[in-house]
Design goal:
heterodimer; A: 109 residues; alpha/beta; Udp-n-acetylmuramoylalanyl-d-glutamate--2,6- Diaminopimelate Ligase, Chain: A, domain 1; 5-stranded mixed β-sheet; 5 helices; 42% helix; B: 140 residues; alpha+beta; Heat Shock Protein 90; 5-stranded antiparallel β-sheet; 5 strands
């Protein structure tokens, strides 16, 4: 499943999709950046409520497929531009992390 | 043996907006060289953690990455306060980061443990009031 397909299936809003055809192989939920760096796997969907500029660097370095902002969290225009420039996909949803993870889990089976 | 390829970065202390830039650049450079993705991921994660540590705790410093034929060496050198208890600092979850840093999602106490986890060797030289030098190696 690609990030673009994920957006359609879960009705996620697009924040920026510079690499929408990127394949997804798993998911990881956490808001502590170092924890994510250490444990998220490449090609994971990273579900978080953090929205500062540092999430872009973490997603880029940990090589996650996309950042999924939960709970209706918004991204500043400035951070959105950085994500776009670095080729980091960011999508969002009004739903809480648990609900998103649960839906995603069924889709990934 | 030929000279290693060398990248050098000045890391600014206290600047969280640009924190991680050096690591992202290293990742890009290593990709251009054509190193395997998993090696690049390990190097960039270890370097990012070190870079963030220098931003949070040491008022910045210098990061150097040397690419040899069979390994990447990362050297992080700062003139910060030093690490009083390395054993404690290496414990997952132990953190001395202040609350304002934690609210940004840092300070999980995973910095040094992640650096060790993602590298094949890590050496810490630290002196209180003088600074810290960390050398990490990732073998191919």
């Amino acid at each position: 499943m690609t990030v673009k397909e994920l957006c359609e299936k879960m009705a996620l809003s697009t924040v920026t999709l510079p690499d929408g055809d990127r394949e997804i192989h798993g998911a990881y939920c956490c808001d502590l950046l170092s924890w994510v760096m250490g444990r998220a796997k490449a090609d994971d969907v990273w579900i978080t409520i953090m929205s500062n500029a540092n999430i872009v660097a973490v997603a880029s370095l940990a090589d996650t497929a996309c950042i999924l902002l939960a709970e209706g969290v918004e991204l500043d225009d400035n951070v959105r531009s950085i994500a776009e420039a670095k080729g980091v996909n960011v999508v969002r949803s009004e739903k809480p992390i648990f609900e998103l993870a649960s839906e995603l889990s069924s889709l990934l089976k | 043996m030929s000279e290693p390829l060398k990248f050098r970065f000045d890391v600014q202390g206290g600047n969280f907006t640009s924190a991680g830039q050096a690591s992202v650049l290293v990742k890009k450079n290593l990709r251009q060289i054509g190193l395997p993705p998993e090696i690049i991921r390990r190097v960039s994660i270890a370097m990012y953690e070190g870079e963030i540590n220098m931003v949070i705790h040491a008022g910045g410093g210098v990061a150097e990455v040397l690419v040899f034929e069979d390994k990447v060496e990362i050297v992080l050198d700062d003139k910060g306060p030093g690490i009083p208890n390395i054993e404690l600092a290496m414990k997952e979850g132990f953190s001395t980061a202040p609350d304002n840093i934690r609210s940004l999602g840092f300070g999980a106490g995973m910095g040094l443990p992640n650096m060790k986890r993602y590298t094949d060797s890590m050496n810490i030289e630290t002196e209180l009031g003088k600074g810290t030098k960390i050398t990490m190696v990732v073998n191919f």
